[in-house]
Design a protein that fits this description.
Protein name (chains A, B, C, D, E, F): 2,4-dihydroxyhept-2-ene-1,7-dioic acid aldolase
Low-confidence stretches of chain A: none
Strand order of the largest sheet of chain A: 1-2-3-4-5-6-7-8
Mean pLDDT of chain A: 95
Radius of gyration of chain A: 18 Å
GO molecular function (chains A, B, C, D, E, F): 2-dehydro-3-deoxyglucarate aldolase activity; metal ion binding
Helix content of chain A: 40-55%
Oligomer: homohexamer
Largest interface: A-B, 42 and 42 residues
Number of strands of chain A: 8
Order of helices and strands of chain A: HEHEHEHEHHHEHHEHHEHEH
CATH architecture of one domain in chain A: Alpha-Beta Barrel
Number of helices of chain A: 13
CATH superfamily of one domain in chain A: Phosphoenolpyruvate-binding domains
Keywords (chains A, B, C, D, E, F): Lyase, Metal-binding
CATH topology of one domain in chain A: TIM Barrel
Shape of chain A: globular
Distance between the termini of chain A: 47 Å
Organism (chains A, B, C, D, E, F): Saccharopolyspora erythraea (strain ATCC 11635 / DSM 40517 / JCM 4748 / NBRC 13426 / NCIMB 8594 / NRRL 2338)
InterPro entries (chains A, B, C, D, E, F): Aldolase/citrate-lyase_domain, HpcH-HpaI_aldolase, Pyrv/PenolPyrv_kinase-like_dom, Pyrv_kinase-like_dom_sf
């Protein structure tokens, strides 16, 4: 997934899985997104169910990312061993932390990933550590005010493929109530700061969106990796619409 | 649930769970439906996960029905022991089969339900077999052409609370391609036949709907228990809309 | 388990598992019961978790029975293939039904059990169909009034090892509120009727008890296979005692 | 799967899954078998894990069969709704039972399958009931002596695609110790009887084999659908070989 | 839960879940405890089953705490996202570690909790980060000798709501065999040291008790948050009593 | 396990579990290995399924090790609480890290293991912290080039029982493609370096092998703890052989 993204300059749109289980994952994988991310940070998804969700996504042919619970080598490596095409690493706040994330994604000599890619070896007979290092995407999340001061250092770390903005957390750290609809000027300036730094450092700018409308706004501004919808939210909203549509007054 | 439905004459609208797992069940339970049915016939849901889904629905305060895989006493009793407020029994084709379904729902002397209501005993300190017999809803599905000839006998069986039309199966048995949108005249006549028989026999007429629009049509016609949306379909459609809405052309 | 029970004339006391999961099963298996029964009829236990519960019981060295959801060959055979030492079959109401239960427990020529004993083959290198036929216990539950009239026929069926009284269901069918404390005269007479018929037909009399006190009463009367405690009830009562013991007044 | 098998006259070789879980299923699906059968009769596999195993097999592109626990409509329909390409139905002993199996596999007018193909609808946008009726394979197991007398009637039932010999059960019913190595003359004669009846009735002859050697024997004789290896047995044998190969003497 | 505890000065008694699964959790939640803690440190409970256990506890209306496996931000945040009302953090040994625990419990500006409260958002439509910061309880465990020297610093950290004594670990670090019955003078002195420090710093003193008797002792001494019973121990003891009570001599 | 290994000087051979689930674990436990290791680093095994796998291994009487995901106290302690006889700790690169691993394995005063051994307490009535400290095996993995420089310091840490070579990772860090067949001279020299250091420091030398052949080579050289086969690889290879053996040409 990585090489193609880096070389094509393409903008991609993703779906987000917070519901545990391989059937919902297959539904998300078949919806037409460019990629689907399984969220093991805020989604209610543990490691026991993750491999089957990645099987379900592989079945649909949609590349799968995993948002790991935290910037820890074991979490990153286990997601990749289970078949993820890349990871989104939350709360990266310094160049040192970004390096740590990158090194967990790459086999030596580029990093320190431990060898044991159980699912990839099953699914790709041409698997090699070199190819894996080329293909595994490493996205770091930029989501606190203090990180903005470290931005140039973070984006200069080789192997940081994507800087992914978490607008809700970034907002909270700026004193704004949590929202994916960025309207407060300071909040917006912070997002734009990440975007311009990405463009300067040739890193793909990514952002978590509230919905397709939000996604279009950021895409027009230059963001290239956009999460446009989350399974649990889609289900909540569409179920509520069904209730309303049926004229229920309960 | 049963007594209130029977006495109030109220029309109710339900949600349908085909996705296994208690988190999706909680989402459906919070959407505002009058009841939610966990489908263990066509949904990909086995008995191991069912009790936790019924816990999730109980948490939301929304009454839970279970569509059992088949008209078998053990399936009906186990769903009730796990906390269902009632069952929808597929493919009931004769008065004898309807009686069998009813008897599995009721303790003696009205039926043959075996005693061991593990979840109900936990959740209702006032539980009694009499109260359970009063409250457990028994819906039988009318979904084949040949059943129409048995309709009066079936609806005359004491304890058949709801006759629930499965339009897709009913259609297939009439030579119509499977659909919840009933337009073919013979198909529509069959649905109307069930409705009028229900009215005659004082049985609640129910029907499986494609969506809220469909639900409104049947409600206006007199149906009183309507399934208006299914989780897997809601997720599929809303995810597809998100993809379209984001202007993806993949 | 069967041969020893039949030949020794020993009275045995069992524990009852209604909670799903292999850890609770191990706790019950280590408590000192002569056997433990996993209840897949009224317990909230499906077939996916059953094999691991039988592993846990095997680990403790305590023989495991399974109460199957219903008198169906597949349910009986699958419990045995997963490692049960015998089955308790609910709601057996005639000699024909008893024969059906027995035949599902025994390989030809004594019965019709299908060959594929996955867990037994792993755990017993000396496994043979003859040995299995000798060792698998078949208990039929006597729990409705009408069954009392069929008792002699049922207990005459070769291979019916135990007649297991379900006092709650038996009581309900006699018009008594569901209880394991048998005090109503007609209720008691029915239980005694099963006991004497067992003694006449050389079948082991068994009974489901409310607690150890109840068990002692029935044992003194002659019952030989007694379930004396259920995991969910033990946990409920002991937790309530802990709350009271701590002087909580909530 | 069905049409191709019926029209090509091809001989196919399958793998057999008795171990629950989607990872082992993926391994079996990638081994190179023509099809893989998930055994929910003798395998320790319940309905909760089945859909994820069928996802895993779909991921490998290997057609998946399911051996259902018993000849019951709900079991057959649920396996198909979860994505199986066909079913193997155990212990079919008469034409009536064969018809029942076939009818559960086919939508009206050929049968009585209820509509709700959740997994097939997701995976095949061209799904139709007609196509499903064409493609779903129905194999009935011939595994008792008495069935041999009904063979012509059974194989004359339209829609019985495969007669699948279970040599172990067939042997037991003939008084032979359970084995997949058929050497006893009466046992062999029974197997040959099924083969010739298949050839006469234009039904695909299938058989459960002990290992590849056994498979070659039956194939040379004319069997066309052969299960050549079972996951649990492969793992047992190869692990034992590893222990021996390492020179362990434990 | 937090504000009420802090403001009321009330003493509360809790139950402890070490058995995985939502049914046991519901039983514990219904027993009458003021709160129930799901132990993911020493209980055999992973993250896949935790959300359903918190659903079960929510169903009972009993506030749920989670003892996290270790003082790591991701563990704390995931427990809260799954619906816990607070956390108990093991092995906190310094003010810096206490701060880290507190910061993981609170959104900015009080802490660094990342935004994505999936279960709380479903269950509380009035959810806000401010309210969450007010309500989420943070208990740090005091359980090593060396920690006693840091006690004043630890209890001075704003947001440390409870200092929870783990008597077994504290004992071991003092050279006493692991026990919840604190009798050794040095052991007792250490516990009293924590109590008096709590009173001085206006932190709620909590302690893990062997049983209700032990709880009463500590409560009389001034402890205000007491775990009085653990599911696995309750089940072990009550099952053993049942065996003894039945007069088994096995 | 530890004391016997250390005192006997015995060479042992192990099996490796990467497939989740207690049935495959039982198969591996019955194969005849001296021990079986459940790999929660590269295997697709989370903490929810681990306790049942350790039950299955305990049932077979084969000592169980767990390879933890990373050198973190919580991971080590939880594996031991669930019943492991010891742990294999990946990527230990310094004496400080080795000490941390050892301290997580031992109760005070030798270490900092927190008390709550749920499974061991159930299975061993003679459990004590002293006995546990004597018996729990601590193996550290040597698998990077830079670690070789720290080898003497690492192996001097009291309580490091085994130095376990991961040849694949060690090779990658030396610029060799990942392989368990060590032929490249620098790669071999590194392995030999670990062996001789072990002999010097009286630490048991262990190594991960490709297969029994590889195991014999290393054993002849002096390695004493050898993993000779992995479940997923055994299944892959034996299934592929079955396909070939059946003459499939697919």
């Amino acid at each position: 997934m990585r090489r193609e993204l880096l070389e094509s300059g393409r903008t991609t749109h993703g779906g987000w899985c917070c519901l545990p289980g391989p059937i919902t994952a297959e539904v998300m994988g078949r919806a037409g997104f460019d990629w689907v991310c399984v969220d093991t940070q805020h989604g209610l998804i543990g490691y026991d169910v993750l491999p089957s969700m990645l099987q379900a996504l592989a079945l649909t042919g949609t590349p799968a990312l995993v948002r790991v619970p935290w910037n820890q080598p074991a979490e990153i490596m286990r997601a990749l061993d289970a078949g993820a095409s890349g990871v989104i690493v939350p709360m990266v706040q310094s160049a040192r932390e970004a390096e740590q994330a990158v090194r967990a994604c790459r086999y030596p000599p580029q990093g320190e990933r431990s060898f044991g890619p159980m699912a990839p070896l099953m699914r790709d007979r041409g698997f090699s550590t070199t190819k894996a290092n080329d293909e595994v995407l490493c996205a770091v999340q930029i989501e606190t005010r203090s990180t903005l001061d470290e931005l140039d250092e973070i984006l200069s770390v080789p192997g940081v493929d994507v800087a992914y903005v978490g607008p809700a957390d970034l907002g909270i750290s700026l004193g704004v109530a949590p929202t994916l609809d960025v309207v407060e000027p300071g909040h917006l300036a912070a997002v734009e700061r990440v975007l311009s730094a990405c463009q300067e450092h040739d890193v793909i700018p990514g952002i978590h969106c509230a919905d397709p409308r939000g996604a279009r706004r950021w895409r027009d501004m230059g963001f290239r990796l956009l999460a446009v919808a989350t399974d649990v939210r889609l289900l909540e909203l569409s179920a509520a619409e069904a209730v309303t549509g049926a004229g229920l007054s309960r």
